[in-house]
Prior knowledge:
Elements: H1 2-15, E1 29-34, H2 39-50, H3 53-58, E2 63-68, H4 69-72, H5 76-83, E3 89-91, H6 99-109, E4 113-115, E5 138-142, E6 144-145, H7 156-160, E7 164-165, H8 168-181, E8 185-189, H9 207-215, E9 222-226, H10 235-243, E10 250-252, H11 260-265, H12 272-285, E11 290-297, H13 304-317, E12 321-326, H14 344-368, E13 373-381, E14 386-389, E15 395-398, E16 409-418, E17 421-426
Parallel strand pairs: 1-2, 2-3, 3-4, 5-8, 8-9, 10-11, 11-12, 15-17
Antiparallel strand pairs: 6-7, 13-14, 13-16, 14-15, 16-17
Helix pairs in contact: 9-10, 13-14
Bound molecules: S-adenosyl-L-homocysteine and iron/sulfur cluster.
Amino acid sequence: MNVHESEKLAGILEQKGYIKGQDVNNADIVVFNTCCIRESAEQKILGNIGAIKPIKKKRKNMIVAVCGCMSQQKDMASNLRAKFPFIDIVFGANNVEFFGEYLDTYLEQKKFLNKVENDKQYLENATGVPFVRDNSLYAYVNIMYGCNNFCTYCIVPYVRGREKSRNPDEIYKEVKTLIDMGYKVITLLGQNVNSYGLDGSTKGVYFADLLENIAKMEGDFELRFMTSHPKDLSDEVIKVMANNDKISKSLHLPVQAGSNKILKAMNRNYTKEMYLNLISKIRDAIPNITLSTDIIVGFPGETDEDYQETVDLLKQIRYHNAFIFMYSKRKGTIAEKMDNQVPLTIKRERIHNLLDIQHQISEELFKNMVGTIQRVLIESFDTKFYQGKSQCGKVVKIENNYKSKIGEFYDILITDYLKGNLIGKVYNGRKEN
Ligand code: SAH
Ligand code: SF4
């Protein structure tokens, strides 16, 4: 989401005649697009803003802007300005589209501008905002903004507001343009894409309809989406995924924890049993699916037994990939006030242990891919190999590269798994040696 918003910021700046710089020492404007999902993200950004101070001292006219989720927090704009008086503009995650206006105002008034607003949320039609996409093959498309779920650890609903779905016709138009431009992987974005349309604003178009309608569009492309909340992933969506070749057979389905007690305390609205049932439904419908997940260790009240349930769940489900985080206290959330916080030493122990377990599972699953045929988008060529990524995001190096073309999909017979990469050959319907 943040990467995509940076593409919007770049688009707005290019429209105003700025060009992307290579060296911050020569910049006319520096924009920090922040994230506050965990404390470590905030620390990183504070360090980076601090590092600008000596440059700004030399380049008095350089404009420093800070935006994104972190600045959307209560009182953050004034706190940031107090800490870093050289910041010129602060605006929030909810009004990125208005950056151009803010810049004009600043250039006119040359006065600190605090534009963290809640009322100007989300343009109905984001299609009018220019984007500068960094990648020419992969494109993100927002289908909804905000989140209604209030998982007790999470700051997103506080900084990004309530769910709001975009008009489906605008989405179709944007996706169609991207396909015509030659983008090959379209990723639909939302904090919980499965609740698309549930706010009643899409005239009865729900996520399964949106997926199906896009999957039916002409062109050689792959359709992905993130993120799915397990409580809302419907049978219709599973069916549409199973029946449409253009929809990626890779699914990110964050489970967060394996213990029902912790899931309840997290307000996730499903039990381990419900989640497992969902996974078997998905695997029955789409046998070649690759799964990934998010896990939080050390949520308040997580005992050794609770943690062990997460370990067991990971071993049982065997995800190709898992993003594992230590619980991080976020100001204003419900979990912040829970009094049974887990000490850092235990959180560290658990994360290291879980990362080791997951690493072993991933290695086994990728080794098991040897002998299978994977659809791969070729992205680049180095001196020896064409290289691309499988649907689950794994790097694949192609040996018989003379047949490959950058930006095209190929069926690749996987021949080996070496140092974290899959090795393969273009497959022509027969398994050549
Ligand atoms: N909306 C998406 C993802 C949101 S943030 C979803 O619900 O799946 C991405 C991940 O960050 C979450 O899945 C969660 O695992 C992690 N996360 C969120 N808040 C956190 C916190 N306070 N501490 C540690 N990890 C957190
Ligand atoms: Fe955060 Fe939960 Fe919303 Fe995801 S679904 S953004 S984890 S509150």
